[in-house]
Amino acid sequence: MSRRVLNAATAAVLGALLALGFAGAPASCRGGEGHIYDPGRLAPRDSTLRVEVGDEAPDFTLPAVTGGIVRLFQYRGSRNVVLSFVPAAWTPVCSDQWPGYNIAEEIFTQADAVILGITVDNLPTLHAWTREMGGMWFPVLSDFWPHGAAAAAYGVLRSDGTAERALFVIDKRGVIRYVDVHDINERPPLDELVRALEHLER
Amino acid sequence: MRRHSVVWIGALTALVLFGPGGAWAAPPAVGEGLPGMTLPAPAGPDHRAYLGLAGEGPFDAAAVRAEVLLIEVFSMYCSYCQKEAPEVNRLYERAGSSPDLRDRLRIIGIGVGNTALEVEVFRKKYAVPFPLFPDPDFTLHRALGEVRTPFFIVARRAAEGNGWVAVLTREGSMDGADPFLKRIREAAGLFKEDGS
């Protein structure tokens, strides 16, 4: 066996090792896999944040999948807001993230918080996807056009036009209190978000 | 140099196949023993009593006192597991009210990739009466072959030793508590007292 072949084999094995990952892939649901597009393992992060804790949250106005328009500033003085950006509809981890928030409504209600779920998909796609997941109690917004403008304002638009898997907690004064731009391949644990909500004014 | 490279490749291959990633582990096959599993401490004395555990703290799945064990592999985040939850509760109630199963079958759930808080959200939302255990770092999920959720494993006490042998596995919905309970009875060789 030549050294070149050995090196190639070593590289292949190392590549396989990296592709499989040590952390274990998030469990995926049986039943949804027929519709879910698996992009494989992606670069954990592919954008540069444009905001930080303490900043005023950039305003946006986006159409909701259930109809109407949602403006971030409409919650000022009345509700805390959790922005949950996910990369795209019909992708594996996202399809396992919002259904969890869906059964944790009480946690958000107790914190006097609303979730705004945001993707860069258009409304018809979001309509089909959220229906397939059984519907959501919180507004799901389309950041499709101008493409990813809200995601870009926060600095979570990736170079391929999808968004990061990112959470922003915004208090009633409109100030960002928590930021988690998560590894796109993994689901953020609910625990950290709950801790962030506990610090907010009710 | 060449010998070192061969050893290097062999070691890496072994790591990929059998190492901590364990991505190629297969789901439990019918007739084969379940992998050893250490489960976290049950939520309280009721669950300890249900599982027949003497001590407190984490325990080996082999220590569950029952003839048959049903394991539901689920995730709090999985909408299909959410839809299935009332039906699994129904199966628990049916088994509990059945004289021939009450003391012979035990049911547990493993929330793969779920923290204790996430499992608690699921338990509370669906009023799950049987013990649920978190598996935040996917250790149990890897041991069970990284199955999709929900996934059901029915295991019977091993003839020798005190482990479990899989007698039935099911990916996805049970398709109804009563038909699945019938399949559990058949696969585990449990029959009603009247022989039916």
Could you characterize what this model shows?
The complex is a heterodimer of chains A (202) and B (196). With 202 residues, chain A is of the alpha/beta class. Chain A has one domain: 3-Layer(aba) Sandwich (Glutaredoxin), CATH 3.40.30. Chain A is 27% helix and 17% strand. Chain A has helices at 3-20, 98-102, 105-110, 123-132, 149-154, 190-198; strands at 61-63, 69-71, 80-85, 113-119, 140-142, 165-170, 176-182. In chain A, strand 4, helix 4 (123-132) and strand 5 form a beta-alpha-beta unit. Mean pLDDT of chain A is 86; it is low at 11-25. Chain B has a single domain, classed as Glutaredoxin, CATH 3.40.30. In chain B, 36% of the residues lie in helices and 19% in strands. A five-stranded mixed β-sheet of chain B has the order 5-4-3-6-7. Chain B has a two-stranded antiparallel ribbon with strand order 1-2. In chain B, a hairpin with a 6-residue loop joins strand 6 (151-157) and strand 7 (164-171). The longest helix of chain B has 18 residues, at 79-96. The radius of gyration of chain B is 18 Å and the shape is globular. Chain B starts with a helix and ends in an 8-residue tail after the last helix. Mean pLDDT of chain B is 87; it is low at 9-24. The A-B interface holds A 1, 3, 6-7, 9-10, 13-14, 16-17, 20-33, 95-97, 99-100, 102-104, 107, 133-134, 187, 189-191, 194 and B 1-2, 5-6, 8-9, 12-13, 15-16, 19-23, 73, 75-83, 112-113, 115, 117-118, 121-122, 125, 136-138, 141-142, 146-151, 171-173.
